[in-house]
Each structure stands twice: as structure tokens, then as C-alpha cells.
């Protein structure tokens, strides 16, 4: 089964660590690795996942739910939501953002993550190959292998929706969230190889007129978490009161 990349859970815990303890929904919860860490940090945690039978913690309530649909909780149920490694797997990411807004209390915190398709390495892979590391062509042979490896639970492994910073910010703002911070899971060891390309991208950004930079989020798209990011882009936001 897929596991979260190094640094992802640690970053989420660092974001939430200084905040008051409260009720948190971990969705998708998977086997419960992040849920267990949130419990240890003092949060009251509930888990939700499309494949709730995979959840391994006996002392936490787990419900079956699909982020592409309506999750089995009443509105304004949670102070926090963590949704790591989920949006890229589902059919309807916009619906997930509507659910985040429905389930959080006003002023509630949301921590989401997706594969970073906008770092410099992935931009070059797209240029040369037409796809990125996390969103490869899904041939029949590849899909058959995934079905075999996951016992038919294809959603666990298939990355169906490539979502970058632009789309995340659009859907967050559309659903009345305000971004508090953008993070990367880790710094890549081979990052130095791309410095000439990074310098060109940032030079082009600096030469862009100010109004266009603001309209096109140029500063954000050339920031360290996005352009120099590791494998995962992590965003912390708050639902406006």
C-alpha cells in the first residue's frame, strides 16, 4: 500500500502543533498513521476513508466516506480538517472543497496536500515527456497491475487529477478559505542541478510588470515551496468567519 512521503506528516503536525486542541477530521485516513500522531499530540480525532476497512486503530471512530460526495457528518462538526494525499485520487476535487467548508466551523483550519506538479523538476519533465512523475499515462497494462497490487482498490494508487497551486488557491478562495501558509514536505537533494533554470524563471518573474505579477500570482508560483518544493505541496488555510 502507498505510504506518505517523508516530511509530510511532520509538516502537518508542525502547522497544527501551536494551535488550541480541538476536534479534527482526518480524511482520507488510510490506515491511520497521521490519525495516531494527531491523537498523540492531544487532538480529538475522527477518521473517514473510502476504504474504512483498512483503518487499523481500534480507539478511533472511522466512517466510510468519499471526498467526491457528501461525507457522513453534519455541518460545522470540526475545528480542523487534515486531508493529505487525497485530492489527486478523486473524481471531483471541487466537491471536496465544498465539503471542507460545510464541515468546518467558522475560523476552522484546513491542511491539504497534493503532489507538487509545479516544482522545477516536474515542469521540465512535462516539457520533455508530456507528463509528470505523479501523473503518468495509465495504460491498460499499468491499470491491470494497479488493480492487482491494490486488490481492486484502484483509488488508493491512481492519481487521476493533477492539481497545482493555481487550482488549489482558486477552489479555496471560492469556498471562503484564506491561505495562511504554503509548505513543502522536504528539500530535494538534487535541487542544485536546476539552479540555472530556476534563475531564468525568477528573472522572467522579476521582469514581469507589477500588475501582471499580482494578477497571475507570479511571486507565489516562483516561491521556494512551489518552485523548489519536494514531492508534495502543503497548504494551510482558515475558513473565514
Describe this structure in words.
The protein has a single domain (8-239), classed as 3-Layer(aba) Sandwich (Rossmann fold). Strand 1 (23-26), helix 2 (33-40) and strand 2 (44-49) form a beta-alpha-beta unit. It starts with 7 loop residues before the first helix and ends with a strand. 36% of the residues lie in helices and 20% in strands. The chain has helices at residues 8-17, 33-40, 93-103, 120-129, 140-149, 165-174, 195-207, 210-215, 218-221, 224-227, and strands spanning 23-26, 44-49, 62-64, 78-83, 104-115, 177-184, 232-239.
User: How many domains would you count in the coordinates?
Assistant: 1
Give the percentage of residues in beta strands: 15-25%
Uncertain residue ranges: none
CATH fold label? Rossmann fold
How much helix is in the residues?
25-40%
Overall spatial form: globular
CATH architecture label name: 3-Layer(aba) Sandwich
Mean pLDDT: 93
Order of helical and strand elements: HEHEEEHEHHHEHHHHE
Q: What count of helical segments does DSSP give?
A: 10
**Rg to the nearest angstrom?**
18 Å
Q: Report the CATH superfamily.
A: Vaccinia Virus protein VP39
Q: CA-to-CA gap between the ends? A: 39 Å
Largest beta sheet: what is the strand line-up? 3-2-1-4-5-7-6
User: For the record, what CATH class applies?
Assistant: Alpha Beta
Tally of DSSP β-strands:
7
Please identify the structural class as seen in this structure: alpha/beta
What's the main sheet like?
7 strands, mixed
Amino acid at each position: 500500500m502507498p505510504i506518505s512521503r517523508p516530511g509530510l506528516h511532520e509538516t502537518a503536525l508542525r502547522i497544527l502543533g501551536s494551535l488550541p486542541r480541538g476536534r479534527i477530521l482526518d480524511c482520507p485516513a488510510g490506515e491511520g498513521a497521521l490519525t495516531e500522531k494527531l491523537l498523540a499530540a492531544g487532538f480529538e480525532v475522527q477518521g473517514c476513508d473510502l476504504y474504512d476497512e483498512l483503518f487499523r486503530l481500534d480507539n478511533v471512530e472511522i466512517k466510510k466516506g468519499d471526498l467526491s460526495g457528501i461525507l457522513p457528518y453534519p455541518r460545522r462538526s470540526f475545528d480542523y480538517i487534515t486531508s493529505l494525499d487525497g485530492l489527486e485520487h478523486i473524481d471531483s476535487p471541487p466537491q471536496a472543497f465544498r465539503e471542507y467548508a460545510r464541515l468546518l466551523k467558522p475560523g476552522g483550519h484546513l491542511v491539504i496536500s497534493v503532489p507538487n506538479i509545479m516544482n522545477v523538476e516536474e515542469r521540465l519533465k512535462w516539457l520533455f515527456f508530456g507528463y509528470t512523475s505523479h501523473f503518468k499515462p495509465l495504460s491498460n497494462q499499468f491499470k491491470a497491475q494497479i488493480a492487482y497490487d491494490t486488490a481492486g482498490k484502484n483509488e488508493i494508487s491512481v492519481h487521476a487529477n493533477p492539481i497545482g497551486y493555481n487550482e488549489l488557491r482558486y477552489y479555496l478562495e471560492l469556498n471562503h478559505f484564506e491561505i495562511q501558509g504554503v509548505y513543502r514536505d522536504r528539500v530535494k537533494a538534487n535541487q542544485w542541478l536546476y539552479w540555472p533554470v530556476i534563475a531564468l524563471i525568477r528573472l522572467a518573474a522579476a521582469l514581469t510588470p507589477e500588475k501582471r505579477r499580482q494578477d497571475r500570482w507570479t511571486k507565489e508560483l516562483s516561491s521556494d515551496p512551489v518552485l523548489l518544493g519536494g514531492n508534495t505541496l502543503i497548504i494551510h488555510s482558515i475558513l473565514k468567519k
